[in-house]
Amino acid sequence: MSEKVLITGGAGYIGSHTSYACLDDGLDIVVLDDFSTGVEHAVSPQAELVRGDVADRSLLKKLFSDGSIKAVLHFAGRIVVPESVENPIKYYQENTATSLGLLAEMVEAEIPTILFSSTAAVYAPREDGAPLEEDALKLPLSPYGQSKLMTEAMIRDVGIAHGLQAGILRYFNVAGADPQGRVGQSTPNATHLLKIASQVATGKRSHMDIYGTDYATSDGTCIRDYIHVSDLAAAHVETLKHVMSAGGQITMNCGYGRGATVKEVIAAAETVFGSTIDARPAERRAGDAPILVSDNTRIKETLPSWQPQHDSLEEMAKSAIAWEEKLKTLNSA
Fold first, then answer.
1. Average pLDDT over residues 264-278
2. How many angstroms separate the CA atoms of 131 and 83, rounded?
3. Which residues lie closer than 8 Å to 126 by C-beta, 6 or more apart?
4. The CATH fold of domain 4-175+226-254
């Protein structure tokens, strides 16, 4: 019986790219997704697909029953910050409570390893905009960030009590699409900045909003540390290997260690697109921090084999716009 990796939310944006990265590395994977936000064409034909909700503990028992699954990559969850402010119960239920059920079933089935999809939204923003190291103050501005921070704490406690080994990866801002064109950001009503810019560039939206133009930054817009989704997916594969080899638990930021403003990202998309993108000033959104940039020292030192390959805004924009064009064909098929 071959050893397998279960990927929850594997039909979503980051989960699907990581699924392909795992397959490229020779891993056998099982994708679990309820398709509430994920899409079917994001799942590789090489993956074993299970349609279902990670909150369904009877389903998890069945998946874990034959002992073939040796690790879980947990992506499933809700990620929209403003929605979490409006509906915190949904986020604590679907992110935190569901993750607790998953951990309980993993312990019961003696599955030793988990990688958890966390977020930079767990941090307290720094007024000076300095890069955030993993031990920086945690003070989430939204229920989304809090729901992830609570799950991190549960994973650590379960690790102490039951020997669960884990990699907790805190994403900064994810952008772009698979350079091979196999998969990209396909989630309906996605809120990722470059996704929206690409939709404007390809005529799927008339314009886009810039939420806040009066921040204390170089051009008044928020600064984020953008990481190409394929580099992030590669980081998951290398983290999985590290955790399964070294054991224990590790928490790492996933970013390039430098920031870009919203307007700079839009400018990169305009350069690739070859024309202006209609971007209009709008009110700030609840739960948005002015500046979030990673200190990525730990991941670079822990995973020397992880070498980012796609770390320019223009490459992120190029792959995102190319995927948006491809989606026209996929959605019309």
1. 94
2. 27
3. 132, 136, 291
4. Rossmann fold (3.40.50)
Is 52 a residue whose pLDDT tops 50? yes
| Structural domain 193-224+257-293+309-332, CATH architecture | Alpha-Beta Complex (3.90)
What is the 8-class DSSP label of residue 218?
S
The pLDDT of 142-146, averaged and rounded, is 95
DSSP at 126: P
Which own/partner contact pairs does 245-248 have at CB distance under 8 Å and 24+ positions apart? Answer: 247/165, 248/159, 248/165
Confidence of residue 283 (pLDDT cuts 50, 70, 90): very high
Enumerate the active-site residues: 144
Q: Which of 260, 266, 292 is CA-nearest to residue 210? A: 266
Rounded Cα distance between 40 and 270, Å, is: 30
Residue 15: strand, helix, or coil:
helix
Please list, in sequence order, all residues whose beta carbon lies within 8 angstroms of the beta carbon of residue 133, skipping any fewer than 6 positions away: 253, 295, 297, 298
Over residues 230-251, the mean pLDDT reads 97
Domain ranges of the chain: 4-175+226-254, 193-224+257-293+309-332
- The amino acid sitting at 110 is E
Q: Tell me, what's the pLDDT at 333?
A: 56
Please report, for residues 96, 153, 309, the alpha-carbon distance to residue 100 in angstroms, rounded to integers and kept in the order given. 6, 11, 35
Q: Long-range CB contacts (< 8 A, 24+ apart) of 85-90?
A: 85/142, 85/143, 85/286, 85/287, 88/143
101-116 b/e (C-beta count within 10 Å ≥ 16 → b): ebbebbeebebbbbbb
Burial of 311 (0-12, 13-18, 19+ CB in 10 A): middle
